[in-house]
Amino acid sequence: MAATIGIGLAALGRPGYINLGHAQDLGADYSVAAMQENAHAVLDAAWRQGVRYFDAARSYGRAEEFLACWIRDRGFSADDLRVGSKWGYTYTADWAVDVPGGTEHEVKEHSLANLQQQYAISQRHFGDHLNLYQIHSATLDSGVLDNAPVLKRLNEMKQAGVEIGLSVSGERQSEVIEKAIGIEFDGVRLFDSVQATWNLLERSAEAALAIAAEAGLSVIIKESLANGRLTTRNEADSFAGGRDVLNSVAKELDATWDAIAIAAAMKLPWATTVLSGAASVTHLDSNMNARDIVWTEALAQQLETIAQPAEEYWRQRSDLAWN
After folding, report:
1. What is the C-alpha separation between 244 and 215, in angstroms, rounded?
2. pLDDT along the chain (323 residues), means of 10
């Protein structure tokens, strides 16, 4: 059974993001009112097309606020949809695209104090609608998976009825996933889900994600379009070979690159949900066409040829500009 499509609000809740062409998607109108209107339009379009999982984070600017307002305005009950959010990063860009030198767009802190503070805000936004609370970008370096007070508090949230997850990023995704699977309280696994980067370019976490699914975790796929590098906006000379492959497949299927990339993620046997990070209704509609692609083994083998070594993928990602 293919995974379903969810909506990630990373590109909807703040003026700046690292997706190729993000400024174009927003029309360079960064007023709060305009961005909320656009976010609600995308959410409405997603709802009409059957999307029922929505993923935000404290660091996505006003994403939680926009999503919570949409839920209230449309009168959705807690049974109508699923909401996930994340803690661990603080949004620091002050609603700017170009931040001053030395200033970050978001600052990471996996402390107990930050968990408590950010969870309280997320609860105020969503109340009973909050189904899943995730560590945002858990890494071995941050030490969050060895932080006993943080893990204890997460377990308390789980006992109170909120599912607990983690998102992972970087070359060592697999190691973090494997470590997380083994964390238990009284013989019960702490984490209910893992959200990881997988796409046609970055496949390094496949084995670990399959193990996670076998252990009972839901698997949420993020960045299936590689922040726009798996769309025709990617005109990098270094991607000429990948462009040829994708153009050939797109012609064969009469489909767009983005739909092909999302379809590839949806057909993974261990994937539960694949996030669309669309920042416009037009791109959302194109993403949703992934559901109509008939997947074959020959197609999968053809697309395997564009995969990159993990270190190269993440190096290129780190070079993407906020826009």
Report:
1. 38
2. 93 96 91 97 98 98 98 98 98 91 88 98 98 98 97 98 98 98 98 98 98 98 98 96 97 97 98 98 98 95 97 96 94
Which CATH code, of 3.40.50.10090, 3.40.630.30, 3.20.20.100, 3.40.50.920, is assigned to 4-318? 3.20.20.100
Ordered alpha helix ranges (H), the chain: 22-26, 32-48, 63-74, 112-126, 148-159, 173-181, 206-214, 240-253, 257-266, 281-288, 297-303, 310-318
C-alpha Rg value of the chain to the nearest Å: 19
What are residue 107's DSSP bridge partners? 90
CA–CA dist 186, 174 (Å, integer): 25
Gap between the Cα atoms of 289 and 228, Å rounded: 17
